[in-house]
Write a structure and sequence with these properties.
Rossmann fold; alpha/beta; 56% helix; 2 domains; branched-chain amino acid biosynthesis
Amino acid sequence: MKSSVFRVERMDVPGGSEDIVRGGRDLFGLLPAALHGVERIGVLGWGPQGRAQALNLRDSLAGTGITVAVGLRPGSRSVEDARTQGFTEENGTLGDWLEVAAASDLVILLIADAALAAQHEEIFAVLKPGATIGLSHGFLLGHLTSIGSAFPEGHPVIAVCPKGMGDSVRRLYQQGATVNGAGINASIAVHADPDGHAWDRALAWSIGLGSPYTFATTLRSEYLSDIAGERAILLGAVHGLVEALYRYFRIEGADPVTAYVRSTEAITGPIARTISTDGLAAVRAASGDEELFDRAYSAAYGPARDLVAEVYDEVADGTELRSVILAERRLATRPMTEIGGSPMWSHSAEVHARRGTAPARIDPLTAGLFVATMMAQVDEFAARGHAWSEIVNESVIEAVDSLLPYMHARDVAYMVDNCSRTARLGTRRWGPRFQAAYEQIALPHLDRPADPALIKGFLDNPAHDALAAAAELRPSVDISV
């Protein structure tokens, strides 16, 4: 990472150091210089990320003379919402997606992955000479590679990838109005840099979104970790785990509300908060039964690691990307069904209503299974050569500081049914695989003694130091949902 405008720091991580840039509203005045001649930013798409990023960039660049415009496809149902947020045809900040792309110096592509895969050539064809192509996900690179294509020559290609859902990107930015730097961490990548200013533009974009901590990656590494992560601990595995635990506790004799509390409520509440504030090892100490935690961890780590590796392989070889594109074709004629129909979710409102009547507890069995799965992803990503900033953000920070708080407010099934199309499809595919692994392998082996080597590996894992280093950059703000 390099910059002629922002201060690049070295953050110590296990085995070395990594380049990072701290954000903050005090840096907003530097954004025009860092954008190097960008006078108009076109944001294509108004999904959760498109909406959040367009609003954040507009607010951060207010008074600079740089225009942020939103481009939508013909017939988009998002037009009215964009208008209510102040993007209008009359002021030149709302229009047809190809017209906005053609008029912009930085074109940020935030339409759905499968739609972008199908229609990227139309966008590339209208770009101004030298216009910068911006992505918040590496999916398009994976698709282009699979079809033997590439980004057009002569255009800088950069990525800014917030490590959280779009609602978190916007909400924490707004909360950060009084806390300098409050926001969602982001990775950045420079895939092509023909004019030598790509790193500065990517950093300006990230800081403009409110990212308190920006770290470098590659576009390929980003999509491998992002797509694998959302199918594992971020969404797919956590959904499979709470479904498996709810059924397990019910079979053991717990009433429905207690089973919900010990499974979903424990993970999205006290376990997530403990990891966010005190780290992974603190969950074991706070569980109240380290022996049960260790047995659960030992039973779950192996099958979880096997599944994370399988997911990663299918992302890396393009299988998972192709499945998303194929699904998009099917969904053009019939909508995706919701998954929140299992019995446990009918008790969500009652559980939420009881909050505050008793102290939130960390269930040691639930904690052991969840932390084992999180560490399985951490270890698999480390074995695949990902940088520590990417590992802890994709496997831990995004979960406990963005996704799990929303799941706590609205429940896991709601989150799965309201996330991006790519994530939703992946969760529906892999969640049942994780659920089966917990039900058929991990839970039946809880009576076995803990594996001392596995527990030592957990306690001595370098991820704890990497997470602690990243935590020093965390703003003193918890997301309000």
